[in-house]
Amino acid sequence: MEMELFDTGEAPAFEVSPSAPLADRMRPRTLEEVVGQSHLLGPEGVLTKIARAGKPRSLLLWGPPGCGKTTLARCLAHTFDAAFEAFSAVLYGVKEVRAVVARAKERRHRGRATILFVDEVHRFNKAQQDAFLPHVEEGLITLLGATTENPSFEIIPPLLSRCRVLVLHPLTEEDLVVVLERALGDAEIGLGAERLELDEGVVPIMARAAGGDARVALTLLETVVESVPPAEDGLRHITGEACEGLIREALLRYDKAGDEHYNLASAMIKSLRGSDVDAALYWAFRMLDAGEDPMFIARRLVIFAAEDVGNADPQALALAVAAQQAIHFVGMPEAFLPLGQAVIYLASAPKSNAVLRAAKAARDAIAETKTLPVPLHLRGAPTALMKGLGHGEGYRYPHSADTGWVEQQYLPDVLKGRVFYEATGRGYEAKMAEYLKRLKSKASEPPPKLDKEPSS
Length: 456
What we know:
19 helices; disordered N terminus; five-stranded parallel beta sheet; 7% strand
Protein backbone atom coordinates (compact mmCIF):
# COMPACT_ATOMS: atom_id res chain seq x y z
CA MET A 1 0.00 0.00 0.00
CA GLU A 2 1.38 3.39 -0.96
CA MET A 3 2.10 5.36 2.18
CA GLU A 4 4.03 8.31 0.78
CA LEU A 5 3.05 10.78 -1.89
CA PHE A 6 5.80 9.89 -4.35
CA ASP A 7 6.17 6.21 -3.44
CA THR A 8 5.19 4.36 -6.61
CA GLY A 9 5.83 0.93 -5.15
CA GLU A 10 3.38 -1.24 -3.27
CA ALA A 11 4.51 -0.71 0.32
CA PRO A 12 3.23 -3.14 2.96
CA ALA A 13 0.20 -1.94 4.88
CA PHE A 14 0.86 -0.31 8.25
CA GLU A 15 4.59 -0.82 8.17
CA VAL A 16 5.85 0.74 11.41
CA SER A 17 9.40 0.99 12.67
CA PRO A 18 10.09 -0.68 16.04
CA SER A 19 11.59 2.64 17.15
CA ALA A 20 8.43 4.58 16.33
CA PRO A 21 6.46 6.12 19.22
CA LEU A 22 4.10 3.78 21.04
CA ALA A 23 1.07 5.66 19.71
CA ASP A 24 2.12 4.90 16.12
CA ARG A 25 3.03 1.30 16.84
CA MET A 26 -0.33 0.59 18.48
CA ARG A 27 -2.43 2.07 15.67
CA PRO A 28 -5.20 -0.43 14.75
CA ARG A 29 -4.79 -2.32 11.48
CA THR A 30 -8.45 -3.18 10.83
CA LEU A 31 -11.81 -1.62 11.56
CA GLU A 32 -12.47 -4.42 14.04
CA GLU A 33 -9.48 -3.33 16.12
CA VAL A 34 -10.63 0.29 16.35
CA VAL A 35 -11.76 1.30 19.84
CA GLY A 36 -14.63 3.75 20.26
CA GLN A 37 -16.84 5.48 17.64
CA SER A 38 -19.53 2.84 18.11
CA HIS A 39 -22.06 5.12 16.40
CA LEU A 40 -20.01 4.67 13.19
CA LEU A 41 -18.62 1.17 13.71
CA GLY A 42 -21.55 -0.61 15.34
CA PRO A 43 -23.59 -3.24 13.45
CA GLU A 44 -25.68 -0.49 11.82
CA GLY A 45 -22.99 2.19 11.77
CA VAL A 46 -22.23 4.16 8.63
CA LEU A 47 -18.65 2.91 8.31
CA THR A 48 -19.73 -0.67 8.91
CA LYS A 49 -22.26 -0.38 6.09
CA ILE A 50 -19.73 1.23 3.75
CA ALA A 51 -17.19 -1.52 4.45
CA ARG A 52 -19.88 -4.18 4.00
CA ALA A 53 -20.93 -2.70 0.65
CA GLY A 54 -17.38 -3.02 -0.60
CA LYS A 55 -17.40 0.35 -2.37
CA PRO A 56 -15.30 3.22 -1.00
CA ARG A 57 -16.97 6.61 -0.56
CA SER A 58 -15.50 10.07 -0.15
CA LEU A 59 -15.71 11.07 3.50
CA LEU A 60 -14.73 13.97 5.72
CA LEU A 61 -13.90 12.79 9.24
CA TRP A 62 -14.43 15.64 11.72
CA GLY A 63 -13.43 15.20 15.34
CA PRO A 64 -11.01 16.14 18.12
CA PRO A 65 -7.35 15.09 18.18
CA GLY A 66 -6.60 11.45 18.97
CA CYS A 67 -10.09 10.09 18.28
CA GLY A 68 -9.00 7.87 15.34
CA LYS A 69 -9.49 9.90 12.16
CA THR A 70 -6.23 8.86 10.48
CA THR A 71 -6.59 5.29 11.71
CA LEU A 72 -10.08 4.96 10.26
CA ALA A 73 -8.88 6.29 6.90
CA ARG A 74 -6.05 3.73 6.74
CA CYS A 75 -8.30 0.88 7.89
CA LEU A 76 -10.85 1.75 5.20
CA ALA A 77 -8.14 1.71 2.53
CA HIS A 78 -7.03 -1.71 3.79
CA THR A 79 -10.64 -2.95 3.80
CA PHE A 80 -11.05 -2.08 0.12
CA ASP A 81 -7.53 -3.18 -0.86
CA ALA A 82 -7.03 0.27 -2.33
CA ALA A 83 -3.81 2.23 -2.81
CA PHE A 84 -3.44 4.73 0.03
CA GLU A 85 -1.86 8.08 -0.75
CA ALA A 86 -1.26 10.81 1.82
CA PHE A 87 -1.41 14.38 0.49
CA SER A 88 -0.14 17.40 2.39
CA ALA A 89 -2.47 20.35 1.89
CA VAL A 90 0.27 22.59 3.30
CA LEU A 91 3.33 21.36 1.38
CA TYR A 92 1.93 20.43 -2.02
CA GLY A 93 0.16 22.31 -4.78
CA VAL A 94 -1.61 21.73 -8.08
CA LYS A 95 1.49 20.18 -9.67
CA GLU A 96 1.45 17.39 -7.09
CA VAL A 97 -2.32 17.03 -7.55
CA ARG A 98 -1.70 16.19 -11.22
CA ALA A 99 0.87 13.57 -10.19
CA VAL A 100 -1.63 11.94 -7.83
CA VAL A 101 -4.27 11.93 -10.57
CA ALA A 102 -1.84 10.40 -13.10
CA ARG A 103 -0.99 7.55 -10.73
CA ALA A 104 -4.67 7.01 -9.92
CA LYS A 105 -5.44 6.67 -13.66
CA GLU A 106 -2.64 4.17 -14.11
CA ARG A 107 -3.96 2.11 -11.18
CA ARG A 108 -7.48 2.19 -12.54
CA HIS A 109 -6.20 0.52 -15.72
CA ARG A 110 -4.90 -2.23 -13.45
CA GLY A 111 -8.26 -2.45 -11.70
CA ARG A 112 -7.15 -0.88 -8.42
CA ALA A 113 -8.75 2.05 -6.63
CA THR A 114 -6.97 5.01 -5.07
CA ILE A 115 -7.85 6.46 -1.71
CA LEU A 116 -6.39 9.90 -1.10
CA PHE A 117 -6.00 10.86 2.53
CA VAL A 118 -5.70 14.56 3.41
CA ASP A 119 -4.99 15.29 7.05
CA GLU A 120 -5.99 18.76 8.23
CA VAL A 121 -8.21 19.01 5.18
CA HIS A 122 -9.38 22.43 6.34
CA ARG A 123 -6.00 23.70 5.07
CA PHE A 124 -6.91 22.66 1.51
CA ASN A 125 -6.73 25.88 -0.54
CA LYS A 126 -9.26 26.63 -3.27
CA ALA A 127 -6.87 25.83 -6.12
CA GLN A 128 -6.18 22.37 -4.68
CA GLN A 129 -9.87 21.73 -4.12
CA ASP A 130 -10.78 22.82 -7.64
CA ALA A 131 -8.05 20.56 -9.06
CA PHE A 132 -9.29 17.48 -7.20
CA LEU A 133 -13.02 18.15 -7.65
CA PRO A 134 -13.61 16.59 -11.12
CA HIS A 135 -11.61 13.48 -10.22
CA VAL A 136 -13.52 12.98 -6.97
CA GLU A 137 -16.76 13.57 -8.87
CA GLU A 138 -16.00 10.89 -11.49
CA GLY A 139 -14.81 8.43 -8.84
CA LEU A 140 -11.19 8.26 -9.97
CA ILE A 141 -10.14 9.25 -6.47
CA THR A 142 -11.89 8.55 -3.18
CA LEU A 143 -11.17 11.44 -0.83
CA LEU A 144 -10.81 10.83 2.89
CA GLY A 145 -10.24 14.06 4.76
CA ALA A 146 -9.53 14.46 8.46
CA THR A 147 -10.05 17.70 10.35
CA THR A 148 -10.43 19.01 13.87
CA GLU A 149 -12.39 22.00 12.55
CA ASN A 150 -15.77 22.36 10.91
CA PRO A 151 -15.21 21.48 7.22
CA SER A 152 -18.23 23.50 6.12
CA PHE A 153 -16.24 26.69 6.73
CA GLU A 154 -13.24 25.73 4.59
CA ILE A 155 -14.33 23.24 1.92
CA ILE A 156 -15.89 24.60 -1.27
CA PRO A 157 -19.60 23.65 -1.59
CA PRO A 158 -19.19 21.49 -4.75
CA LEU A 159 -16.55 19.32 -3.07
CA LEU A 160 -18.37 19.29 0.25
CA SER A 161 -21.55 18.08 -1.46
CA ARG A 162 -19.66 15.06 -2.85
CA CYS A 163 -18.36 13.99 0.55
CA ARG A 164 -20.22 12.68 3.54
CA VAL A 165 -19.24 14.38 6.80
CA LEU A 166 -18.88 11.99 9.73
CA VAL A 167 -18.55 13.39 13.23
CA LEU A 168 -16.18 11.53 15.56
CA HIS A 169 -16.38 11.82 19.35
CA PRO A 170 -13.62 11.95 21.96
CA LEU A 171 -12.85 8.50 23.31
CA THR A 172 -14.39 7.66 26.68
CA GLU A 173 -12.30 6.76 29.71
CA GLU A 174 -13.44 3.15 29.26
CA ASP A 175 -12.23 3.25 25.63
CA LEU A 176 -8.85 4.59 26.70
CA VAL A 177 -8.47 1.93 29.38
CA VAL A 178 -8.87 -0.66 26.62
CA VAL A 179 -6.27 1.14 24.48
CA LEU A 180 -3.76 1.32 27.34
CA GLU A 181 -4.24 -2.27 28.48
CA ARG A 182 -3.84 -3.44 24.89
CA ALA A 183 -0.48 -1.63 24.71
CA LEU A 184 0.61 -3.09 28.05
CA GLY A 185 -0.25 -6.61 26.94
CA ASP A 186 1.20 -6.57 23.42
CA ALA A 187 4.69 -8.08 23.55
CA GLU A 188 5.35 -7.60 19.82
CA ILE A 189 4.78 -3.90 19.22
CA GLY A 190 3.60 -2.68 22.63
CA LEU A 191 5.09 -2.77 26.11
CA GLY A 192 4.25 -6.39 26.89
CA ALA A 193 7.90 -7.43 26.74
CA GLU A 194 8.82 -4.88 29.40
CA ARG A 195 8.91 -5.95 33.03
CA LEU A 196 6.28 -3.59 34.44
CA GLU A 197 4.30 -3.49 37.65
CA LEU A 198 1.54 -0.88 37.78
CA ASP A 199 -0.26 0.05 40.97
CA GLU A 200 -4.00 -0.47 40.89
CA GLY A 201 -5.74 2.57 39.51
CA VAL A 202 -2.79 3.92 37.48
CA VAL A 203 -4.29 2.95 34.12
CA PRO A 204 -7.67 4.61 34.87
CA ILE A 205 -5.81 7.72 36.06
CA MET A 206 -3.94 7.93 32.75
CA ALA A 207 -7.16 7.30 30.81
CA ARG A 208 -8.86 10.12 32.67
CA ALA A 209 -5.88 12.43 32.15
CA ALA A 210 -5.81 11.94 28.39
CA GLY A 211 -9.02 13.90 27.84
CA GLY A 212 -10.44 11.57 25.20
CA ASP A 213 -7.22 11.49 23.14
CA ALA A 214 -5.71 8.03 22.49
CA ARG A 215 -2.44 9.53 21.33
CA VAL A 216 -2.08 11.48 24.56
CA ALA A 217 -2.92 8.38 26.61
CA LEU A 218 -0.32 6.20 24.89
CA THR A 219 2.31 8.93 24.93
CA LEU A 220 1.70 9.47 28.63
CA LEU A 221 2.07 5.74 29.28
CA GLU A 222 5.28 5.53 27.28
CA THR A 223 6.73 8.63 28.97
CA VAL A 224 5.93 7.38 32.45
CA VAL A 225 7.46 3.98 31.74
CA GLU A 226 10.63 5.56 30.36
CA SER A 227 10.87 7.96 33.31
CA VAL A 228 10.85 5.17 35.93
CA PRO A 229 14.28 3.49 36.18
CA PRO A 230 14.26 -0.29 36.57
CA ALA A 231 15.13 -1.85 39.91
CA GLU A 232 18.05 -4.24 40.31
CA ASP A 233 15.87 -7.12 39.17
CA GLY A 234 14.83 -5.16 36.05
CA LEU A 235 11.29 -4.51 37.27
CA ARG A 236 9.79 -1.06 36.72
CA HIS A 237 7.24 -0.19 39.41
CA ILE A 238 4.79 2.47 38.16
CA THR A 239 2.98 4.43 40.86
CA GLY A 240 0.42 7.20 40.67
CA GLU A 241 3.00 9.62 42.08
CA ALA A 242 5.42 8.79 39.27
CA CYS A 243 3.15 10.36 36.66
CA GLU A 244 1.61 13.18 38.72
CA GLY A 245 3.35 15.99 36.89
CA LEU A 246 2.77 14.43 33.49
CA ILE A 247 -0.91 13.88 34.28
CA ARG A 248 -1.40 17.59 34.96
CA GLU A 249 0.21 18.41 31.62
CA ALA A 250 -2.08 15.97 29.82
CA LEU A 251 -5.17 17.29 31.58
CA LEU A 252 -4.35 20.72 30.23
CA ARG A 253 -4.07 19.54 26.64
CA TYR A 254 -4.13 22.80 24.81
CA ASP A 255 -3.26 24.03 21.35
CA LYS A 256 -2.89 27.81 21.29
CA ALA A 257 -3.10 27.93 17.50
CA GLY A 258 -5.82 25.35 17.05
CA ASP A 259 -9.40 24.45 17.76
CA GLU A 260 -9.07 23.89 21.53
CA HIS A 261 -7.78 27.45 21.95
CA TYR A 262 -11.00 28.87 20.53
CA ASN A 263 -13.19 26.27 22.23
CA LEU A 264 -12.01 27.36 25.68
CA ALA A 265 -12.28 31.05 24.85
CA SER A 266 -15.80 30.45 23.53
CA ALA A 267 -16.75 28.56 26.68
CA MET A 268 -15.54 31.46 28.84
CA ILE A 269 -17.45 34.06 26.83
CA LYS A 270 -20.66 32.02 26.83
CA SER A 271 -20.36 31.47 30.59
CA LEU A 272 -19.88 35.21 31.14
CA ARG A 273 -22.87 35.94 28.93
CA GLY A 274 -24.94 33.43 30.89
CA SER A 275 -23.93 35.10 34.21
CA ASP A 276 -22.39 31.85 35.50
CA VAL A 277 -19.57 33.20 37.65
CA ASP A 278 -18.11 29.82 38.57
CA ALA A 279 -18.04 28.46 35.02
CA ALA A 280 -16.52 31.71 33.71
CA LEU A 281 -13.76 31.50 36.32
CA TYR A 282 -13.14 27.85 35.51
CA TRP A 283 -12.70 28.40 31.76
CA ALA A 284 -10.60 31.57 32.24
CA PHE A 285 -8.21 29.80 34.59
CA ARG A 286 -8.17 26.69 32.38
CA MET A 287 -6.70 28.88 29.69
CA LEU A 288 -4.36 30.66 32.09
CA ASP A 289 -3.03 27.46 33.68
CA ALA A 290 -2.49 25.94 30.24
CA GLY A 291 -0.07 28.72 29.34
CA GLU A 292 -2.35 31.12 27.50
CA ASP A 293 -1.13 34.71 27.29
CA PRO A 294 -3.15 36.54 29.99
CA MET A 295 -3.35 39.55 27.69
CA PHE A 296 -5.35 37.47 25.21
CA ILE A 297 -7.91 36.74 27.94
CA ALA A 298 -7.88 40.39 29.02
CA ARG A 299 -8.61 41.55 25.47
CA ARG A 300 -11.56 39.17 25.28
CA LEU A 301 -12.90 40.60 28.53
CA VAL A 302 -12.64 44.18 27.23
CA ILE A 303 -14.55 43.22 24.09
CA PHE A 304 -17.15 41.36 26.16
CA ALA A 305 -17.68 44.38 28.41
CA ALA A 306 -18.71 46.52 25.44
CA GLU A 307 -20.50 43.81 23.48
CA ASP A 308 -22.47 41.93 26.12
CA VAL A 309 -22.73 44.30 29.10
CA GLY A 310 -22.64 47.65 27.38
CA ASN A 311 -24.54 50.45 29.05
CA ALA A 312 -26.46 48.12 31.31
CA ASP A 313 -23.40 48.72 33.50
CA PRO A 314 -21.11 51.45 32.10
CA GLN A 315 -18.51 50.60 34.75
CA ALA A 316 -17.96 47.17 33.18
CA LEU A 317 -15.82 48.52 30.34
CA ALA A 318 -13.84 50.75 32.72
CA LEU A 319 -13.14 47.80 35.01
CA ALA A 320 -12.20 45.50 32.11
CA VAL A 321 -9.72 48.07 30.76
CA ALA A 322 -8.34 48.60 34.27
CA ALA A 323 -7.90 44.84 34.61
CA GLN A 324 -6.08 44.73 31.26
CA GLN A 325 -3.73 47.47 32.45
CA ALA A 326 -3.20 45.76 35.80
CA ILE A 327 -2.46 42.42 34.14
CA HIS A 328 0.07 44.11 31.86
CA PHE A 329 1.64 46.00 34.79
CA VAL A 330 1.75 43.14 37.31
CA GLY A 331 2.42 40.19 35.00
CA MET A 332 2.28 36.53 35.94
CA PRO A 333 1.78 34.85 38.32
CA GLU A 334 -0.08 37.58 40.28
CA ALA A 335 -2.02 38.66 37.17
CA PHE A 336 -4.59 35.99 37.95
CA LEU A 337 -6.03 38.26 40.67
CA PRO A 338 -7.13 41.25 38.53
CA LEU A 339 -8.13 38.76 35.85
CA GLY A 340 -10.35 36.92 38.31
CA GLN A 341 -11.85 40.17 39.60
CA ALA A 342 -12.80 41.24 36.08
CA VAL A 343 -14.30 37.84 35.26
CA ILE A 344 -16.44 37.88 38.43
CA TYR A 345 -17.63 41.45 37.81
CA LEU A 346 -18.51 40.87 34.16
CA ALA A 347 -20.33 37.62 34.88
CA SER A 348 -22.32 39.31 37.65
CA ALA A 349 -23.16 42.48 35.70
CA PRO A 350 -26.54 43.02 34.00
CA LYS A 351 -26.33 42.14 30.32
CA SER A 352 -27.25 44.11 27.22
CA ASN A 353 -26.13 43.75 23.62
CA ALA A 354 -27.87 46.98 22.61
CA VAL A 355 -24.50 48.58 21.77
CA LEU A 356 -23.65 45.72 19.41
CA ARG A 357 -27.07 45.83 17.76
CA ALA A 358 -26.95 49.63 17.41
CA ALA A 359 -23.47 49.58 15.89
CA LYS A 360 -24.47 46.88 13.42
CA ALA A 361 -27.67 48.73 12.45
CA ALA A 362 -25.78 51.98 11.90
CA ARG A 363 -23.11 50.29 9.78
CA ASP A 364 -25.77 48.46 7.76
CA ALA A 365 -27.41 51.83 7.05
CA ILE A 366 -24.06 53.23 5.91
CA ALA A 367 -23.55 50.28 3.57
CA GLU A 368 -27.07 50.77 2.26
CA THR A 369 -27.02 54.53 1.71
CA LYS A 370 -23.29 55.09 1.10
CA THR A 371 -21.99 58.66 1.67
CA LEU A 372 -25.01 60.83 2.34
CA PRO A 373 -24.20 64.56 2.59
CA VAL A 374 -24.19 66.18 6.01
CA PRO A 375 -27.30 68.39 6.44
CA LEU A 376 -26.40 72.07 6.09
CA HIS A 377 -27.52 73.05 9.59
CA LEU A 378 -25.08 70.51 11.09
CA ARG A 379 -22.07 71.75 9.15
CA GLY A 380 -19.49 74.02 10.70
CA ALA A 381 -19.11 77.56 9.35
CA PRO A 382 -15.69 78.88 10.33
CA THR A 383 -15.42 81.16 7.24
CA ALA A 384 -17.63 83.79 5.66
CA LEU A 385 -17.84 81.71 2.47
CA MET A 386 -19.23 78.75 4.37
CA LYS A 387 -21.74 80.94 6.15
CA GLY A 388 -22.77 82.36 2.79
CA LEU A 389 -23.38 78.83 1.54
CA GLY A 390 -25.78 78.20 4.42
CA HIS A 391 -23.52 76.11 6.63
CA GLY A 392 -24.86 76.04 10.19
CA GLU A 393 -28.01 77.95 9.31
CA GLY A 394 -30.97 76.81 11.40
CA TYR A 395 -28.92 74.90 13.95
CA ARG A 396 -30.45 74.96 17.43
CA TYR A 397 -28.04 74.88 20.37
CA PRO A 398 -29.41 72.37 22.94
CA HIS A 399 -27.81 74.09 25.96
CA SER A 400 -29.94 77.16 25.28
CA ALA A 401 -32.96 75.23 26.54
CA ASP A 402 -33.51 74.67 30.24
CA THR A 403 -33.72 70.91 29.67
CA GLY A 404 -30.50 70.80 27.65
CA TRP A 405 -32.45 69.34 24.73
CA VAL A 406 -34.28 70.69 21.69
CA GLU A 407 -36.19 68.89 18.98
CA GLN A 408 -33.99 68.81 15.91
CA GLN A 409 -33.15 66.51 13.01
CA TYR A 410 -29.62 65.14 13.07
CA LEU A 411 -29.80 62.35 10.47
CA PRO A 412 -29.84 62.92 6.71
CA ASP A 413 -33.34 63.13 5.23
CA VAL A 414 -33.07 59.63 3.75
CA LEU A 415 -32.57 58.20 7.24
CA LYS A 416 -35.00 60.46 9.08
CA GLY A 417 -36.72 58.54 11.86
CA ARG A 418 -34.39 55.53 11.58
CA VAL A 419 -33.71 53.94 14.98
CA PHE A 420 -30.39 52.19 15.59
CA TYR A 421 -30.10 52.08 19.37
CA GLU A 422 -32.85 50.34 21.28
CA ALA A 423 -32.02 50.35 24.97
CA THR A 424 -33.08 47.44 27.13
CA GLY A 425 -34.73 47.68 30.52
CA ARG A 426 -31.74 46.13 32.29
CA GLY A 427 -29.37 47.82 34.72
CA TYR A 428 -28.33 51.40 34.12
CA GLU A 429 -29.57 51.14 30.56
CA ALA A 430 -33.12 51.25 31.90
CA LYS A 431 -32.40 54.76 33.25
CA MET A 432 -30.91 55.77 29.91
CA ALA A 433 -33.95 54.43 28.06
CA GLU A 434 -36.30 56.29 30.36
CA TYR A 435 -34.34 59.54 29.92
CA LEU A 436 -34.37 59.28 26.11
CA LYS A 437 -38.05 58.39 26.13
CA ARG A 438 -38.82 61.39 28.32
CA LEU A 439 -36.94 63.73 25.99
CA LYS A 440 -38.62 62.44 22.85
CA SER A 441 -42.07 62.65 24.43
CA LYS A 442 -41.74 66.41 25.07
CA ALA A 443 -43.53 68.74 22.74
CA SER A 444 -41.33 70.87 20.58
CA GLU A 445 -40.26 73.89 22.58
CA PRO A 446 -40.08 77.43 21.18
CA PRO A 447 -36.73 78.14 19.56
CA PRO A 448 -34.25 79.24 22.24
CA LYS A 449 -32.67 82.66 22.04
CA LEU A 450 -29.20 81.30 21.32
CA ASP A 451 -29.22 79.14 18.17
CA LYS A 452 -25.53 78.50 17.83
CA GLU A 453 -22.61 77.18 19.79
CA PRO A 454 -20.75 79.77 21.86
CA SER A 455 -17.50 80.87 20.29
CA SER A 456 -14.37 79.67 22.00
